[in-house]
Amino acid sequence: MVYGTYLGGTNVDSVSGMAVDSNGAAYLIGLVGSTDFPTTAGAFDTTFSTTIDCYVTKLNAAGSGLDYSTLLGGDNNAETCNNIAVDSSGNAYVVGSTFSSDFPLQNPIDSSLSGSNGFVTKLNSTGSALEYSTFLGGSNILGGFTGALDFAFDIVVDSDGNAYVVGDTAATDFPLASPLQSTLNNSYAGFITKINPAGTSILFSSYLDGNDTDFCRDVAIDSNRNIYVACRTLSLDFHTTTGAFQTTNGGGQDVAIVAIRSDFSDYLFSTYLGGSGTDTAADLEVDSNGNIFVVGSTTSSNFPTDRPYQSAISGAQDGFIAQFTSTGDLDFSTYFGGSASDENISGVALAPNEDKVIWIGGSGSSTDVPTSSSPFQSSSSGSSDAFFAKIDTDSLRVTATDPSSDEVQVSIDSNIRVTFSETLDTSTLSGTTVSISPTVNGTLSYNSSTNVVTFNLDGLLSPSTDYTITLTTGITNTTSNPLSANYSFTFTTDPLLTEGGTAFCQLNKGVVNSHGFLEIILVTLLGLLLYRMSSLRMQGSRNI
């Protein structure tokens, strides 16, 4: 551990968002219930105003002290701070929602609160003043009611200081600019809004909506400032683009991934992602090559997978990890979880200087969440634990085996097949990288159209025997990426002699047992003896 610290006072305080700047300083936001929450001299607001406020705190890079800590809120006891971003100058951008008409504003685009509105607040680099602070929302709910419900949930900032904000709205008059969708179609819609660096104008704003309830909670931008949004949708007609990966709702609540051109002229792509259950996106990131990584949770047994690390759901709810290419093609998708019913992946981060490698974090109550060979903590310690994993989405993986792992009563003349996630470099297939214990003679073959390696037996397997197949990281794909980790599976063969003359069935297949000709003679004699005894029993029955 580099450092660890408490942050709070004598009442309930929580963290809801975090950002880290280029110098390693951490910026935290959340809710304050403590009148003695630590603030710093000269900070924008050091006076606790109600029973709940927001806070913005900057920890130094060593974690040994506060660079600044300020409160943020009004008197109506109803603020939420949802996320934070930091620009290259150290200015902090905070988004959330408020019912407080006296929420602190500075040069606002919108100064009129109606019901609950979102807010966007920019603090200067020392935390001593607001660069800008504005409400973001409307005033009229669908059906003619007044008093909107608007929530800003996520924010990202580009190198010029433009802020990109996503959230949910029930307002028919939500502020729009060059929208791709200009009409609220149902009671709740997602939105995406871009605000200029000074906070004086909205450059782009649009509903993201279908005929049912839609929420948009996560946003990212790429190096060209194209915009990527992750939403949750119940709509059957959420906008999808021609040729999108999934153009129809899989059933219930699906994830929706929306990519918008930097000039707001059109969609790059828009697609559903989900199965027949409830699918929820919790976070997304975009790397320098335009790969989009989305994580969340799913109850769908038919959630779309591609080159999966875990091909089937393990409990009633598992986490998921999905990667799309810059053109919207699904390049990787996997379940991630154990046998309990509450796994959720809540965050994803890009690993620096490693292509298509990500960190994920989540929580759940399973005792069998996947862990690596030498984990910091190998087992769950309580009713619900956090988990953390590093995932290489481009690594070579085993996706299926035949026989399957732990299968029993496997026929002794069965060839052994292993399916890989992508095309192999066949020169890396050898007795060194593929081994069978106990040793069995045979040859390896490879089908490049199905990515299946087959071990073709020279003889029969031994009956009633446990066999272990081991595949090593010496196996690589055609771009020299190795198998993600050594992989092994075990199966057990069927007894050779069983009631009904199994021995004859095996011998009639014309395969010579690796134990030699003598065993065949013995087996044949035993089989004839069984057959003769069976005949005598049948004759005895007739005589009676």
Descriptive report:
Among the domains are: 1-209, no CATH class; 398-492, Immunoglobulin-like (Sandwich); 502-543, no CATH class. It is elongated and about 85 Å long. It has helices at residues 502-508, 517-543; strands at residues 13-20, 26-32, 53-59, 66-72, 79-86, 92-98, 117-123, 130-136, 140-141, 145-146, 150-157, 163-169, 189-195, 202-208, 214-221, 227-233, 254-260, 267-273, 279-286, 292-298, 318-324, 330-336, 344-350, 357-364, 385-392, 398-402, 416-420, 434-437, 442-447, 452-457, 466-471, 487-492. The protein has 544 residues and is mainly beta. Residues 498-521 and 528-544 have low confidence and may be disordered. It starts with 12 loop residues before the first strand and ends with a helix. Strand 5 and strand 6 form a beta hairpin.
Can you lay out the helices and strands and say which pair or pack?
Blueprint: E1 13-20, E2 26-32, E3 53-59, E4 66-72, E5 79-86, E6 92-98, E7 117-123, E8 130-136, E9 140-141, E10 145-146, E11 150-157, E12 163-169, E13 189-195, E14 202-208, E15 214-221, E16 227-233, E17 254-260, E18 267-273, E19 279-286, E20 292-298, E21 318-324, E22 330-336, E23 344-350, E24 357-364, E25 385-392, E26 398-402, E27 416-420, E28 434-437, E29 442-447, E30 452-457, E31 466-471, E32 487-492, H1 502-508, H2 517-543
Antiparallel strand pairs: 1-2, 2-3, 3-4, 5-6, 6-7, 7-8, 9-10, 11-12, 12-13, 13-14, 15-16, 16-17, 17-18, 19-20, 20-21, 21-22, 23-24, 24-25, 26-27, 27-30, 28-31, 29-30, 31-32
